Amino acid sequence: MQSGGRQAEAPGRGPRVLVVGGGIAGLGAAQRLCRHPAFSHLRVLEATARAGGRIRSEHSFGGVVEVGAHWIHGPSQGNPVFQLAAKYGLLGEKALSEENQLIETGGHVGLPSVSYASSGVSVSLELVAEMASLFYSLIDQTREFLQAAETTPPSVGEYLKEKIRQHMAGWTEDEETKKLKLAILKNLFNVECCVSGTHSMDLVALAPFGEYTVLPGLDCTFPEGYQGLTDCIMASLPKDVMVFDKPVKTIHWNGSFREASAPGETFPVLVECEDGDCFPAHHVVVTVPLGFFKKHLDTFFEPPLPTEKVEAIRKIGFGTNNKIFLEFEEPFWEPDCQHIQVVWEDMSPLEDTAPELQDAWFKKLIGFWVLPPFQASHVLCGFIAGLESEFMETLSDEDVLRSLTQVLRRVTGNPQLPAPRSMLRSCWHSAPYTRGSYSYVAVGSSGDDMDRLAQPLPSDGKGAQRGFPGGSVVGSLPAMRETRARSLGREDPLEKEIATHSSILAWRIPWTEEPDGLQSVGSQRVRHD
């Protein structure tokens, strides 16, 4: 079969390899491949005009803000992102200190500096700490179900609610205090939704939840922006590797394609782009977000993927977590404030009825993190997950700003609180090439579904190593089961299986999930965000 459209030929000999997607997963795969002399014929096809995917640092408010990935959680020697950031000189002295790397956080979000209730009063931080201790102890208990064949209940949310009901039997406070305790717990449920990238913890499977690995280290950020990491990786690649504004329409695989510039040679894969350009290749590395897969599953592969892969894509969860930045001329918070919690006293994790989105979407907002002060502005960063987050994307900037101004005036008890002077927000669900933020193991799925996606096509029986369940599936050479090169003197897995001629092959990089929320690379429950 002769491939049509413009043939984009790369120089050099050896197998042609295409990487679809220029987020950190695609860049990481390209960097690894470029280090190997056998892969001089490499291209990365990126749908947008920029690399980095959901790592997106923007200059705004007189400084740098992270619209996508925000922290490195678990910044210590076992975290590949931390290692890369340290290697490239992107972290501050405190983050690099041994003391910082040894701090054990348990993978949990820290306590707020101040907690406001919807009635306009401050919530006792002692009460917040008590409920956080209960909640995170229950989260830690979910690890007990890791090897369970079946769990009752099946979801993390149902398990947490069952345990909370049991604890409530021992509460001796008055009804108002009990109600406030439940409201605090509801906020913590919403925090966990941001951490897990889901609308509800009832959607997150209980048994595989314990697979997530938590690394030591106190969360850190990139002083000059997370995008410095992808910029450094980009700089290490040959200049002609990246192809921007090249969205892929269909990957034709397991075929026999030819091109005029290579007479007599056939290629098992043809990548067809939306603009009509076609790229024949021997191997394709697919690093597009799972949300995009879900949206375009019926048309992105020809022939269609095998049933087991289709089912895995459909079963694995993929949710939305967004940020809303609010800029103030003067701060209304105390100088040492780092985290503002918002508690809605009419909300409880034990109540399943949800208000209409248009009336109460903002109640899913977990609160605000105080960004380091910029030259002439003060900025709060709010997090919101789930359907409420997706609904927020449909509103105008004016509507969002108006709603959050009303929220802040209400919870602080100050009706004269000055409105933010500007706003910036992420909209990851409506972004056409992401369709959400990051994945989770949903009820009805398991880590085995991740492994199924990591198997090469056509199947040669040599699957990739099971990595971090929170991560996306990356297609690559079957031999690339490790993210680090083996030491000298040992066989190179790329060299060993260079003769394998599969067309779409699988390799999942544990540290390359591109979230927008509270999770971080290096830990399965705390991705790089």
Characteristics:
18 strands, disordered C terminus, 529 residues, Polyamine Oxidase, Chain A, domain 2, single chain, 6-stranded mixed β-sheet, 4-stranded parallel β-sheet
CATH topology of the domain at 57-62 and 107-212 and 318-425: the name is Polyamine Oxidase, Chain A, domain 2
Computed structural class: alpha/beta
- CATH C-level of the domain at 57-62 and 107-212 and 318-425: Alpha Beta
Number of strands: 18
User: In what range is the share of β-strand residues?
Assistant: 5-15%
Mean pLDDT: 85
Number of helices: 15
As residue ranges, the low-confidence spans are: 1-12, 461-503, 505-529
Structure description:
This protein is an alpha/beta fold and 529 residues long. It has a domain at 57-62 and 107-212 and 318-425: Alpha-Beta Complex (Polyamine Oxidase, Chain A, domain 2), CATH 3.90.660.10. The chain is 28% helix and 15% strand. It has a six-stranded mixed β-sheet, with helices on both faces. Helix 1 links the parallel strand 1 and strand 2. It is globular, with a radius of gyration of 24 Å. The two termini are 43 Å apart. This is Peroxisomal N(1)-acetyl-spermine/spermidine oxidase. It is found in: Cytoplasm; Peroxisome. GO terms for molecular function: N(1)-acetylpolyamine oxidase (3-acetamidopropanal-forming) activity. Keywords: Acetylation, Cytoplasm, FAD, Flavoprotein, Oxidoreductase, Peroxisome.
